Amino acid sequence: MDKTIRVQIFELVDEEYQKFASALIPNVNNVVGVRLPELRKLAKKIAKGDWRIYIEHAQSEYFEEIMLQGMVIGYVKADIEEILQYVAKFVPKIDNWSVCDSFCVGLKFTKTNMEQVWDFLQPYLSSENEYDIRFGVVMLLNFYIEEEYISRVLQLLDNAKHEGYYVKMAVAWAVSICYVKLPEPTMTYLNSNSLDDFTYNKALQKITESYRVDPETKKRIRSLKRK
User: Fold this and answer.
1) Cβ neighbours of residue 93 under 8 Å, at least 6 residues apart?
2) Rounded CA gap, 75 and 116, in Å?
């Protein structure tokens, strides 16, 4: 089956897009160049068929093959426990921000299984692996920046210590989304946190780049920058 999937992937290659995508994802040299909407169409088709057989035998030589597996997991219909087993098997394959972030945004079953997925994420957020933590942080920013969770989310972001660039950038991104959605608790956090200077200042920068923050507030946020 999977050889057929690879053939289908290669039939969708766009050489111009390959150059563009490769430039966006440093240290990844196995991009063949398929646009994400095309991969999503293929993933939906696989998810409607015998997706368990596909995942069991899926090859992971190319960037798109890994991305496709993650998308399929997001589309399948199954018991939450079973899906989370597939998520757990997939996370170790994540080695770049693009696969991580596309995978996370597709896990929409989280919305109807909030507490169960929350518990599932905790070990990733305390991992020593850069992309384990990024996976956890991006899941938080996609699904958990709500009043019920905000204090716990901010605490987890504060505790997500890792020297990896892609962890720092994910935490900064998440803090900025927290501010845009829930400014009051996030401002309290910004006034008292243990983020390193790079992550903290990046979070402020991202807040000021948001069109949902007014000019006066942006001025106030800039004044918080650490020298």
Assistant:
1) 60, 66, 69, 70, 99
2) 18
Task: From 125, 136, 188, 197, select the one nearest 161 (Cα to Cα).
Answer: 125
Q: How many CA atoms lie within 13 A of 65 on its CB side?
A: 18
d(CA 140, CA 167): 13
From 51, 37, 39, 53, select the one nearest 6 (Cα to Cα). Answer: 39
Q: Cα separation of 124 and 128, whole Å?
A: 8
Rounded CA separation 173/204 (Å): 9
pLDDT in tens for each of the 227 residues of the chain? 556 999 999 999 999 999 999 999 988 999 999 999 999 999 999 999 999 999 999 999 999 999 999 999 999 999 999 999 999 999 999 999 999 999 999 999 999 999 999 999 999 999 999 999 999 999 999 999 999 999 999 999 999 999 999 999 999 999 999 999 999 999 999 999 999 999 999 999 999 999 999 999 999 999 999 98
d(C-alpha 95, C-alpha 101), whole Å: 11
Q: Are 106 and 75 in contact (CB under 8 A)?
A: yes
- Token pair of 100, please? 């991580």
E strand or H helix at 158:
helix 150-159
User: Is 190:202 a contact under the CB 8 Å cutoff?
Assistant: no
